Amino acid sequence: MTEPQSGKVSEIILDTPPVNALGAGLRRHLLAAIEAADADPAVEAIVLRGAGSVFSAGADIAEFAADDMGEPWHPLVLDRIEACSKPVIAAITGVCLGGGLETALACHYRIADASARFALPEVTLGILPGAGGTQRLPRLMGAREALAMMTGGRMIDAGQALALGVVDEVVDGDVAAAARELAASAGRPPIRRTGALPVPADLAEAVAEARARLPVAALSTAPARIIDSVAAITPDFAAGCAVETALFSELRTTEAARALQHAFFGERKVSRIPGLARDVKARPVAKVGIVGGGLMGTGIAIALLNAGLSVIVVETRDDAREKSRETAAKAVERDAAKGRITQTVAESRIAALSMAAGLEALGDVDLVIEAVFEDLAAKEQVFTALDRIVRPDTILASNTSTLDLDAIAAFVADPSRVVGLHFFSPANIMRLLEVVRGAATGPDVLATAMAFAKRVGKVGVVSGVCDGFIGNRMFEEYLRQAYFLLEEGALPQGVDRAMERWGMAMGPLRVLDLAGQDIGWAIRKRRAVEQPDRPYSGIPDRVCELGRFGQKVGRGIYQYPDGRTAVADPLIDDLIVAYSQEIGVERRLIEDAEIVDRCLLALINEGARIVGEGIAYRPVDVDMIYLNGYGFARERGGPMFQADEIGLATVLEKIRALAAGRNGWAWEPAPLLVELAAQGKRFADPNV
Ligand code: HSC
Fold this sequence. Notes:
Helix content: 40-55%
Bound molecules: (S)-3-hydroxydecanoyl-COA
Strand content: 5-15%
CATH class of the largest domain: Alpha Beta
Radius of gyration: 28 Å
Number of domains: 3
Number of strands: 17
């Protein structure tokens, strides 16, 4: 990897595709290369760069899970670069992240091109920059800016990096050539060691400010430890680094770090479809039709416009069509007003949107997403019409969240072109996209749906067909327990607070109020007929009978005096207590731990059932659905990750104990859970 250049300049190239991650092998080569160049009397300066279009995405994250992270240590390699007796120039193109940026910081001079992007995103993985980043970056850009960058994992571009002193020069064109030229010239930069720069003047003040901004309760201690590490900066660089190393080791083994790294790899793993032949190609998607201009259809339109796609929204009602267009245009304009996009980009996005009153407008689209009312007859009308109108290669997707996708696919002559694209509301914000694979969905149609998910910035997760698909099917068991807890002694705010403290963005009862109690009511009525042996608590029905359909009407389980803030309602508390009496349950004090246990175990057990049935490909798919669509804290990793944390034998034991108690019928252990627990396995085992 070392290429001596014209006698005087040695070029060291980081070359471990796809992102030049600094695994042990690369670090070994880098150390050897820098030592060789330093020792070679013919070499006067060194250029360090990445092969391909990136500098480096940092440490190899997969190494963090190993007991032994491999030799040589990142800090040792970087200290050797900094100590080099010849100028080392980093030539930076593309991403320069984490340990990649720390490597550049250990060089004596940094040149970037306009494509360069810089961040120390370790905090998003539950760790801290452990190769001198907390010690070097503040010395270059000041403690305040460095702390903001590191605690937020914020990315900056080349212009910002120049303004903040992170890089010394930004060039147009070939940055490697510019670096080589500079290194070979008489005017080459002198050796300037970042670690030897003075302690940043704003250190004490910036540390105090950052500490004051820390949230009182946080699931990850990484932001706090980053501040501690920066606070350890003194003129003695090595002493500060020792503190950084100790804090890095402490963080590496935390639950939050393991969970966040599980999420990082999980979000990439879910895009792999088991059994899909290598030669299956996704179809190109540039123009998309959306049928239905309601809240969901409009949200989908915004998400697609933001991804640079051309969109036609079909809405038959004139007023709804106009409202949909206005809402979409306003969302784009808001992004321009906030400086997220330029005015020119905003104009091109708005121009890419057209509206139509009839399906005939969709004759030339690559993909249609149906987002009409959840009623099979309504879907039949749309799909049979589309079958006549669209091109033979157009993919037909339904956004259904409750209906049988295979029944919908049967409305068209070729069901292999039908797939489910279940967006979550608001569709332009929520990252999850459940991609529903029907019995007949073609492999290339599935591949196209997954590529489309990525294109529109979503985490696409494949689900087989079942009632509620993966996410809502699990949520139903979770809610069932939440309501049983109310019957037994808890009150709504107690249940929600326990779950929120534990790590759900919003407690289950508040979620129902937000989604609309009437939606759950309709599902429960259907379930009462379909599953008479799995009764639901009567509490939510009583709430609905009072017309309390949730936040949208100002009252549900909670009351909403200002239209948004959930406030406990004594009337509902009384209703719950009366209901317990009516069904003959003696109310008892229920601790937060029991609430969390029961709600979480319900998710785990149903998740295991779903994986066992092959509805989800892998346990990690279930986790990614919960992290990206259901407000499950990333620092908790997802229900199946949690099951592994608890230990499957313990999970099973707890479930069996619940099965012996009240409403024990709801706790039949999932076969997969029983099987894995018996084998001493985990959901994370690759062969699950
Ligand atoms: C770090 O650097 C810690 C340091 O402070 C050093 C600590 C030293 C400790 C010393 C002890 C005291 N590692 O995302 P994509 C894979 S922490 C391993 O699909 P894109 C990725 O899994 C690191 N693998 O592509 C995928 O593999 P697959 C800080 C990594 O173009 C493939 O590359 N850095 C990897 O959409 C393509 O990735 C970060 O947090 C890594 N670092 O995005 C950056 N990075 O094909 C994390 C990527 O098999 N990476 N892979 O699925 C990213 O943000 C994005 O991947 C990019 C590319 C923006 C780089």
